[in-house]
Amino acid sequence: MRVVYEDNHIIIVYKESGEIVQGDKTGDTPLSETVKEYIKEKYQKPGAVFLGVVHRLDRPVSGLVVFARTSKALTRLNNMFRDGEVHKTYWAIVESEKLRVKSEEFATAEHWLTRNEQQNKSYAYDHEVPRSKKAILRYRVIGHSDRYSLVEVQLLTGRHHQIRCQLSAIGCPIKGDLKYGAPRSNPDGSISLLSHRVEFIHPVSKEPIVVESPLPADPLWSHMKMNR
């Protein structure tokens, strides 16, 4: 675990791919418990440590996760996430010939997504279908390598597996994401999707908070040539 930002009310950490944010049926130690232990030891807190989970990242995804350290911050952050006042930017390495060109303008992808609980997977349609929810994101190409493109994504809605599903639907599956059409997995089981940047007004101090994530260990991230 790597702490990227912390104060009395908020802590933002870098999640490695493979870590879970909150406990689940696997029984694996979640990131939330690791953060609690960090706070307990650093500040020598007796008893239980309060930590509020305000959002999650899929297990194979890496990047920034925001936690609340106080109940006041938790309530306010929950409202901010719900109302779209927390702006998250994602980077994805995608497998597509079509995107290996400079593109400074954002394009918009709109689909209707349905969720299959048994498969833990979403499906995209270009028209409304029963039990579907509209999904909108903006994306642009910001870099490339010989075989891949680096795409910046901004979510305008929050749906299950939205980025993974929608990028696949436009013919650009995320590298390593077998569930959504990538031809092969990454050696470490990750997918090449990074929660790269988070911006919001601090729920207590009202100061602007802007935090960027370090890059994953996979050298492909640092070898991507950024568009200029």
Task: Give the helices and strands, then pairings.
Blueprint (H helix, E strand, L loop, with lengths): L1 E5 L3 E6 L15 H12 L9 E2 L8 E7 L2 H12 L4 E8 L12 E10 L4 E5 L7 E12 L4 E7 L6 H8 L23 E9 L6 E5 L6 H5 L1 E2 L2
Verbal overview:
With 228 residues, this protein is of the alpha+beta class. It contains 4 helices and 12 strands; from the N terminus they run E-E-H-E-E-H-E-E-E-E-E-H-E-E-H-E. Strands 1, 2, 3, 4, 5, 6, 7, 8, 9, 10, 11 and 12 form a 12-stranded mixed β-sheet that branches. A hairpin with a 4-residue loop joins strand 8 and strand 9. The longest helix has 12 residues, at 31-42. The mean pLDDT is 93.
- Sketch the major β-sheet: 12 strands, mixed
Q: Using only CA atoms, what is the Rg?
A: 18 Å
Q: Indicate the overall shape.
A: globular
What's the overall average pLDDT, rounded?
93
Percent of sequence in beta strands:
25-35%
Secondary structure tally: strands: 12
Task: Output the number of helix runs.
Answer: 4
What structural class do you assign from the helix and strand content? alpha+beta
Portion of residues within helices: 10-25%
How would you spell out the order of helices and strands? EEHEEHEEEEEHEEHE
Low-confidence stretches: none
Query: How many angstroms separate the termini?
Result: 32 Å
